[in-house]
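Backbone Fold Data
Goal — fold tokens
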Amino acid sequence: MTGSLLRNLVNAPSLKLLRNAGKRTFPCIGTFAQKRFLSSASENMVSSNYLILPLKEIRDFNDSSFMTVRDALNLALEEEFIRDERVFLIGEEVAQYNGAYKVSKGLLDKFGPKRVIDTPITEAGFAGLAVGAALSGLRPICEFMTFNFSMQAIDQVVNSAAKVCYMSGGTVECPIVFRGPNGSAIGVAAQHSQDYAAWYGAIPGLKVVSPWDSEDARGLLKAAVRDPNPVVLLENELQYGVSFPVPQEAMSPDFVLPIGKAKIVKEGKDVTLVSYSRTMNFCIEAAEKLEKDEGISVEIINLRSIRPLDIDTIINSVKKTNHLVSAESGFPHFGVGSEICALAMETEIFDYLDAPVERVTSADVPTPYAQNLEYLSFPNAEVIVKAIKRSLYKKGK
């Protein structure tokens, strides 16, 4: 198996592809899917002002198309494969099985085994091969079946990919994307449920992004592939099948989102709520409940980028609201929320705060396997509501 992997990598997007760069030998992308209206909601669809989640559906809605996060990633991969023949995907089950979560569905048929490469269960091995390919001028996308398995390859990610540009005095670039599902799923227990945003966000030389909706997934993946240095793309398994509106301008093959720039998802005047990835769902639910029940106006910021962190957007929001709450699924110690709290003390945010910063995190325990305990170990809308009310000194109301 290892010999086959090496042959595929050497014969794949190699010098031949580099010599032929610019030639487009692959067919253009066809119609993404049949667009249709959903006649009614079901138990598989959650609807709100900012979030509509019909599983595996696409529909017209004003100037937007609806697509799942999975399909947004798949289309972005296909477009980047067509745009740049140096791009290839490597990982476990990414080819013949269409990906463990079907993110790479159809890519093997369209681009062949030299660019969509199945590997043995050897994260340290294929991550190292991918780093070497990046240093040789190719643009690998290295998929971890879950980022928990990236622990097997953390030396390649941190010591090889992240540090080579600095240690070479800026003369060697390493254009590689490490991507896959991050954080908790359902019933996968402690060894498969960690959020690696803070882990990799601590490393100089890495850019770390974490998409929430389909526009995030599409724009951040394309930006990551085009970046000249390592990018860690932290997806979420439970978001893959969720559908979101994607503006028409985001459907352009040239659409990218700037790494390091957050997005204000909902404007508000009473409190700033900062989050990323799946926890954004609960932030929106909490904001709607507070506005409906108590007239509290919540401004929600989707970080999108963990490193670099868009502190300017947070500062400008807190200048307006004078209150700050962060929410994440990571552990409380040394997390993304901890960094936001530190920045609140070290920047002008401190001058505008009317209350201490509130943090919402997972419980400080290995994730339980028991369903009832697992549910209690991660933040939900109710927990976020309580944190916002504490920030506004409305604890007893």
